[in-house]
Input
Amino acid sequence: MIGTVYLLSTEFILALSSRTASQKSRKLRRLLYWFGAVNSFFVPDRLLSADMGRVEKLTAEGITRILRRVRRGSLSVEKAVDHLRDLPYEDLGYAKIDHHRSLRQGFPEVIFGRGKSPEQVEGVVRRMLPRGHNILVTRGDAVLFERVRKLDKRAEFHPLSGAVAIRRDRTIQGKGTVLVVSAGTTDIPVADEALITAETMGNRVQAIFDVGVAGIHRLLSESRQLRRARVLIVVAGMEGALPSVVGGLVAVPVIAVPTSVGYGASFHGLAALLGMLNSCAPNVAVVNIDNGFGAGYLASVINRL
Output
């Protein structure tokens, strides 16, 4: 379905870019004829909104509704152009917002806050808000959060990780629970980033903190909860042993996240990273050092399969 709608939307853009009005009209008629042959497989009539003025999400379902409205005559070509004007991206000069990403990958572009000015982050969020989907800013701070909250009162700040989330759609998309496990309390900021990412992407999430291998009995006491999870994210610094232990206890994917927590020979997380890459547990995969976001995103993708 997504592939078909992607092709339809691409053809729509090509039609609108035609040089002459006659070419544009001819291509649009051909596109709408094609769409009429296949639309019965997409979205039932009950999903069509009576509010024709709203901005649709650039998802497979949203573009389907736009094309159906044009075909039925309830939405003009000009209005449809306004809906799709920024597909596939919107150029702000300092940023090219990938509005098309939610259609390709199932979740919109995430904003990495560190290194951007507050004005730049605010500008990107402002342009993403009309799309109606969830918005996530990682590696932010309280000052950045206050600017985002002025744009949308639903914004939430998570001070441990610095994540700012605007959750406008709380639909659960994942099939099971994503469980985030941290070896130590100092690993919690990275674990929190993974947890907020997975939650914002529509997953049920749970967390177990401070169950590292120095006190293995703490982990074993949570074995039942470990086995109930569909995907696990295990965050550890120092020597990075915890993901291998967890991997040996469960039959599901374990995403290992090395952190930069540790003393001299930990080399700011490199020791943990190498230890995890050399894990004897075959169900363990590894993301980059301190990359809680990447782990949460990958867990969400797995949880939807």
Q: What stands out?
A: The chain has a mean pLDDT of 85. Residues 233 and 255 are 5 Å apart (CA to CA). The chain has three domains: 2-84, 90-166, 177-304. The two ends are 15 Å apart (CA to CA).
